[in-house]
Amino acid sequence: MKVGIDMGSLTSGQPAKLDIEELLATRLLVQGNSGSGKSHLLRRLLEQSAQWVQQVIIDPEGDFVTLSEKYGHLVVEGERSEGEIAGIASRIRKHRVSCVLSLEGLEVEQQMRAAAIFLNAMFDAEHAHWYPVLVVVDEAQMFAPAAGGDVSEDARKMSLGAMTNLMCRGRKRGLAGVIATQRLAKLAKNVAAEASNFLMGRTFLDIDMARAADLLGMDRRQAEMFRDLQRGNFVGLGPALSRRPLPIAIGAVETQARSSSPKLMPMPEAPADVEDLKDLIFTPDPEELTRLAQRRVRPAPRPTTDILAELSRATPLSDQPSPRPGRDASAPEMDADERERRVDAVLTEILADPQSGYRTDAALYQDFMVRLRMRRVPGSPMPLGEFRRRVAIARSGVDAETAETEVWATALTLSATVTEDLQGVFLMLAHAAIKGEPCPSDARIARAYGTHSARRARRLLGYFEEQGLIIVHADHSGKRIVGLPDLQAETAPGAADAPDDEAGNAEAAE
């Protein structure tokens, strides 16, 4: 069914039509600086298409909750447990209910985690529930950042992975991503690149104007036009809009956001007497004191790692008789060597899963702690930092003989100069160089980093080279060689585009 919704008007006065069915297959990217009318555009799109398609809005500021009053959208507050959020998302997909996930009041990292859990639950819905859904994500640069910020690496990777699934693989599952951002430069390129439709609004920074011009297929000299766009005016391009860039003035909306742009208003008349003014400001009224007394302070959620640590220290339930006096009742007797062997066995078991490379460190750590407890391994829990370090070493593939060498000790020292998420990749390259093995392919490097993107693998090599840790060059046949100057070693030539044989063999074995 072909449905064209009215987004506003063209310069010719004709209505600007957006093909919803085509949009579901090709996705949309909206860009505009604060105050350009970006949220107004999204509201127009949502209002006009509400009767034709299910809608899910990821709303970090709570601006779109007013859609519930006129269009019946269910408002889902983000201040819920992970299990609750995932269950609600699954049922929303199953029953085809339009909703607004309001993340207002949460910290940025909490917003990222809540949005990721919600999107992943929708993505993992049963095949029978793959109905078409318009998934609108406002402030997408927050959920798919181009670089790390003040949030934890686990939260960033979790959120970025969910956004990548939405834009790259969501189409076959009925999920059509509509992402809006203030800054193209801050939005992850692999997320932005999956959109085929674009609505570009007013922007002033050269780097954003250049990217907008590139996406629209315009000459870079024409990029200056984005500075001159009025509020609510956008340049549109894409199969759901137009085959050529067209200026569009977005039409009126029927609902309003709870927040609005600031307007000038006259100042109130101040008391003439300074003492009266001081009394007005410094003396609280009784109602204010009552409100402060009744206000509840919501405690911050406890980190999962702290809870797991407590569980690991707890005494396991047992039907055995109570131990004799003088014996340690908290754990079975086990020498240090045996405990270390069991810990290594559990770690090897977890990393043997071919999908372990694509799971977050927090998820692997939780699995690790639970398995140790199931096997009744005594002792203090391994800190998350040490766990990450051991996972990085294990993923490098180093054998026992090489691990005892001085050159490997140097590699471990060098790996500490990069962030924890990159240590596994660096140690894998170091091991290949020390052993003289072929250079790992892009697919193998990507898996070690926890991604499927070969492009990101190449960027990692570029980053290591910029830091002076490696030197990348090619032999006469074009195969890649990675040298590590500090180790006086280099890999054998290897094909960058070779498949990841280890992952393929593991999947075939299953």
Automatic annotation (TrEMBL):
Highest taxon above the source species: Bacteria
Biased composition (Acidic residues): 498-510
Region (Disordered): 295-340, 488-510
Boundaries of every AAA+ ATPase domain copy: 24-304
A Pfam cross-reference name: DUF87
Keywords recorded for this protein, A-Z: ATP-binding, Nucleotide-binding
GO molecular function: ATP binding
Nucleotide-binding in keyword set: yes
Matches recorded under InterPro entries: AAA+_ATPase (IPR003593), ATPase_Atu1862_pred (IPR014588), HerA-like (IPR008571), HerA_central (IPR002789), P-loop_NTPase (IPR027417)
SUPFAM superfamilies assigned to the protein according to its UniProt record, in alphabetical order: P-loop containing nucleoside triphosphate hydrolases
PANTHER family linked: HELICASE MJ1565-RELATED
Protein name in UniProt: ATP-binding protein
Lineage: Bacteria, Pseudomonadati, Pseudomonadota, Alphaproteobacteria, Hyphomicrobiales
